[in-house]
Write a structure and sequence with these properties.
By secondary structure, the chain is an alpha/beta fold. 33% of the residues lie in helices and 18% in strands.
Length: 743
């Protein structure tokens, strides 16, 4: 190797050594400051740092008589839910008491649910995941962080990265779908977006991976229900996104409400110590979910408040969100000898280190003039519009879309979600203002050709039996050249504490569509929803279906852009749409079974009353153009364990409009020490293609992509045959085979 290369290597290594020694030095400086501080703290002050209380909706009397005195005596370390127009000022007021009037001057850390935007409300996370656009998702998180931190927040309780395979569960809307690989990538992107490159940057937010763990596996999709899964399922399906988030540098995690196999997550040392700290090396702190430490009594795992507190902090839960009784019982547990104060010290150490690392001691106050400059800017709104457009999934199109503006004399807009701002915001949009949203009706009005008549009828409510709006809707349909039906779920039907025992279109909406269809006017459905719905009747009866989820403040412009073809839809489903609820749970990366479903053979794994496949599979989504997959090639047919091989294929836009295609890479391990899924997503790329253009995609099949937890739960590659697909979705594509041999 030439001497100059050696020299450059030496320089690089020296630089790395300096950087790491600097960061180690910084850490040891922080360690020293934290240890010195802890040495001065009373037991009550230490427990105060572990306390997080909500301040949401606190009135002036509560503020003056309870909250401020508590801050002054060091009885609280964090608040959540500070909101409203004077948030920055109130934050500084409380912080001033903590820093300048309390005995030790330890700053507060303020947390908020900045889930998919702060004021600029982006599409719900499930929608964002269907864009498969990690960079844009990260950018949206960075914008949310800038807006939220200017408003006085330090910490977001996001990303929510619970894998969800059951659409009955209301919180499927908050996560990034059913696939561990894709959800892991979004977890990392969101952490980087929120936290940025410099934790002390005042425009960043500390991230919080939640809910640790397996909350999406609640039985029957019923909120807060029991989780009983195998260790293998926990590691293969539910943990990977959390590992990715920890590796991306997330500063905190939040425990889940549920138990896992008999142990509530907020008191589970296997989760919080063995996995999170001993195996993954996590150095931040864990906050419980809302009162979930105290709720270990209801679980039947803790005897009383004191026992719940001891079990929580001993297991590795450092901050108790709103578990007031548990927090207040904690000092006595130490005095009674039921808990060593050293355990409290370690919990407080983890909390204080994060407060130091995000700069709260050096810079505890927010610049109250900042919010107006960084909130709802043109750039932020443009990102909201683009992310909404890329999150839409075209489920069906018999050719009706895109609409030709100048060919429409009268367009009918019908449905309870067409002229609606609130529901466009989606679940967990507390800091947003629906007045910032553009309705789908207005979005269409803004873009329709001059002279075209726009007629509107609500038709019915989202979720009531009233049919009094039907007549007007039918009148609109009869005189329209085309009808856009904007139907689905309100935001209220999604999110926490909103599990549904059926996932049909709510209320009388389906009846409304039937009546509009009966007029003979062609219908395009825009489905507004936070979960997959059972819409087989729509699939069979209307020519076009676009799922727009809850698209955020730019709902109207983004939907209009798409309906009129100014944007060609490119989104792909990250959750499976079942044909019937009876199929749930149904997901793409299922096992083959010993009797894989087969039309000809009754005695195979299927139903007698519905086809065993989903209505729309994971990875599926149409475009206004067509993409042809051809020329699959593997550079090797056989590799040794540890070697890689390259898979390539050609993707051609065979249609007459430009478009984007999310090309997916799937693998199947055909034989192993444990059964393996029929397919697993292992990579993807999003291609822009002009009409007639061909691009070659290339994927490297690495050891990491071939690894899995074997029968001994060791993560490794086993020799054997594999199938590989380069595909447009999880059920089709170009198939190849290769073999991995032992070394
Ligand atoms: C809730 C949610 C959690 C949220 C917390 C604070 O109950 O489960 O996701 O971050 O309370 O609002």
């Amino acid at each position: 190797m030439k001497s100059k290369n050696i020299l450059s290597l030496v320089v690089i290594f020296a630089a790395l050594a300096i950087i790491s020694s600097q960061s180690l030095a910084k850490d040891s400086q922080i360690d020293k400051k934290v240890n010195d501080l802890i040495a001065k703290m009373t037991l009550e002050e230490k427990v105060g740092q572990m306390a997080q209380y909500t301040i949401h909706g606190a009135n002036d009397i509560e503020l003056e008589n309870q909250i401020k005195p508590l801050v002054k005596k060091g009885g609280v370390g964090s608040f959540l839910g500070l909101a409203g127009k004077n948030t920055p000022e109130l934050r500084n007021e409380l912080q001033k008491i903590a820093v300048e009037q309390s005995r030790l001057g330890i700053p507060l850390i303020l947390g908020y649910d900045v889930i998919h935007g702060y004021r600029t409300m982006f599409p719900i996370p499930l929608a964002q995941s269907c864009s498969w656009n990690l960079d844009l998702a990260q950018k949206a998180a960075a914008i949310a962080a800038k807006e939220a931190s200017a408003a006085g927040q330090d910490w977001t309780f996001a990303p929510m990265i619970d894998i969800a395979r059951d659409p009955r569960w209301g919180r499927i809307a908050e996560g990034f779908g059913e696939d561990p690989y894709l959800c892991s990538l979004f977890a990392a992107a969101k952490v980087k977006g929120f936290q940025g490159d410099d934790l002390k940057d005042p425009s960043s937010l500390a991230a919080c991976l939640k809910h640790f763990a397996a909350y999406g596996a609640v039985q029957a999709g019923r909120e807060y229900h029991t989780v009983d899964i195998s260790k293998r399922t926990l590691w293969e399906t539910y943990l990977p996104p959390f590992k990715a988030g920890v590796d991306a540098g997330a500063l905190t995690l939040m425990t889940a409400f549920n138990e896992i196999n008999g142990i509530p997550a907020s008191g589970d040392p296997y989760l919080l110590n063995d996995i999170l700290r001993d195996q993954w090396g996590f150095e931040g702190f864990v906050v419980s979910d809302y009162n979930s430490v105290f709720q270990m009594i209801s679980h039947g795992y803790a005897e009383d408040a004191g026992d719940s507190a001891v079990k929580g902090v001993t297991a590795g839960c450092e901050m108790f969100m709103e578990s007031k009784a548990s927090i207040e019982a904690l000092p006595q547990q130490v005095k009674d000898g039921k808990l060593s104060e050293k355990v409290i010290d370690e919990a407080v150490r983890r909390i204080l280190k994060i407060k130091y690392r995000i700069g709260l001691f050096e810079n505890p106050y927010v610049d109250t003039t900042l919010a107006d400059k960084v909130t709802l800017t043109k750039e932020n709104i443009a990102v909201a519009r683009q992310l909404a457009r890329e999150s839409f999934v075209l489920l069906k199109n018999d050719g009706l879309l895109p609409l030709k503006k100048n060919k429409i004399k009268t367009i009918g807009i019908i449905g309870p979600l067409a002229n609606n701002k609130d529901d466009m915001m989606g679940t967990w949009a507390g800091s947003g203002d629906p007045n910032d949203a553009v309705t789908i009706l207005d979005g269409i009005k803004q873009q329709i050709a001059p002279g075209t008549q726009v007629l509107y009828a609500k038709g019915c409510d989202v979720d009531s039996d009233s049919t009094k709006g039907f007549a007007k809707a039918i009148k609109v349909a009869v005189v329209s050249d085309v009808v856009i039906m904007v139907i689905g779920e309100s935001a209220e039907l999604n999110g926490e504490a909103h599990s549904r025992s059926n996932i049909n279109l709510p209320g009388v909406q389906r009846r409304l569509v039937e009546l509009v269809k009966a007029t003979g006017t062609p219908i395009a459905v825009v489905l507004i929803t936070g979960r997959p719905l059972t819409i087989s009747w729509l699939e069979e009866n209307v020519p076009a279906i676009l799922v727009a989820w809850h698209p955020g403040i730019q709902a109207g412009p983004a939907v209009a852009d798409t309906l009129f073809g100014d944007f060609n839809p490119s989104g792909k489903l990250t959750v499976t749409f079942p044909r019937t609820l009876g199929q749930v749970p149904i997901f793409y990366n299922h096992k083959n079974t010993g009797r894989p479903a087969n039309k000809k053979d009754r005695y195979t794994s299927k139903y007698i009353d519905v086809h065993w496949t989903p209505l729309y599979p994971f990875g599926y989504g149409l475009s206004y153009t067509k993409f042809d997959y051809s020329n699959l090639k593997l550079n090797k047919k056989k590799i040794k364990i540890g070697d890689s091989l390259i898979v390539t294929a050609d993707i051609t836009n065979t249609g007459d409009v430009a478009g984007e295609e999310i090309v997916q890479l799937y693998l199947q391990d055909l034989f192993a020490s444990v059964t393996r899924p029929v397919r697993e997503l292992k990579g993807f790329t999003k291609l822009k293609l002009n009409p007639g253009q061909t691009k070659t995609v290339s994927f490297v099949i690495t050891k990491e992509r071939l690894s899995f937890y074997n029968d001994k739960m060791k993560y490794l590659v086993e020799p054997g045959d594999f199938k590989v697909w380069v595909a447009p979705d999880s059920v089709s594509g170009l198939e190849g085979k290769f073999t991995v041999t032992a070394n």
